From TrEMBL:
Transmembrane segments: none annotated. Gene3D superfamilies: NAD(P)-binding Rossmann-like Domain. This is NAD-dependent epimerase. The lineage of its organism: Bacteria, Bacillati, Actinomycetota, Actinomycetes, Kitasatosporales. One of its GO terms (molecular function) is oxidoreductase activity, acting on the CH-NH group of donors, NAD or NADP as acceptor.
Length: 214
């Protein structure tokens, strides 16, 4: 059993990761700004935010993994990127691993091809979020600190607007968008969470990004 702190535990990805972690017998500290996560067996709801450095340090010291399932930007401005150094420092001091719920925008559409966020059809409204999360990934890769982290990019279609079902069947990839024979790239919240918690249970991507899709 691991102790997993989930920042953004009541969000779409964070909620599914919390559910999957509980299904496997892990203990979850469920953090959101209001402390409104459901109080149930295995869950400790906690009011707080990932931008509270003292709270992050406290939780890193008592957790095996810090899951960062929060928006990359706020009001069109970077939110998560400036926090990367303090997150890494807290994890290093506390001996925790960091797992980041990333975005699909930083994935390349093909080997040697452009990133999804740089393609002509990528919606302008989503570019600040996608670009910031891409910068978060690069900051993690460039960090000169002994912290084990992983970053999981979902498929292009991922979110409450396309919830899907829990199938337990999916494919993993690296830095290239994974799509089916018809060019569709999608993953349900539940199956994304399976891949995410698999990485917690059996680490295979250390200081690396991977992606999951059908």
């Amino acid at each position: 059993m691991a102790i997993i702190t989930v920042f953004g535990a009541t969000g779409y990805a964070g909620g599914h990761i919390t559910d999957e972690a509980l299904r496997r017998g892990h203990e979850v500290i469920a953090v959101n700004r209001t402390g409104s996560a459901e109080a149930r067996a295995g869950v400790t709801p906690l009011a707080g935010s990932v931008d509270d450095e003292s709270l992050v340090r406290e939780l890193a010291a008592k957790s095996d993994v810090l899951v960062i399932a929060v928006h990359g930007s706020a009001d069109g401005e970077p939110f998560l990127l400036p926090l990367v150094p303090s997150l890494l420092k807290a994890a290093a001091e506390g001996g925790a691993r960091i797992g980041v719920v990333g975005g699909a925008g930083s994935l390349h559409v093909a080997e040697g091809g452009p990133r999804l966020v740089d393609t002509p059809d990528f919606p302008d409204a989503y570019k600040p979020e996608a670009s910031t999360h891409a910068d978060v990934l690069e900051a993690l890769r460039a960090a000169d600190i002994d912290v084990d982290w992983f970053y999981v990019s979902p498929a292009a279609e991922f979110g409450a607007w396309a919830p899907g079902e829990r199938t337990g069947s999916f494919r993993l990839g690296g830095d290239v968008l994974v799509a089916d024979a018809d060019g569709k790239s999608s993953i349900s919240g539940a199956d994304y969470a399976i891949a995410f918690v698999d990485e917690i249970d059996t680490p295979a991507h250390r200081k690396a990004r991977f992606t999951v899709a059908y």
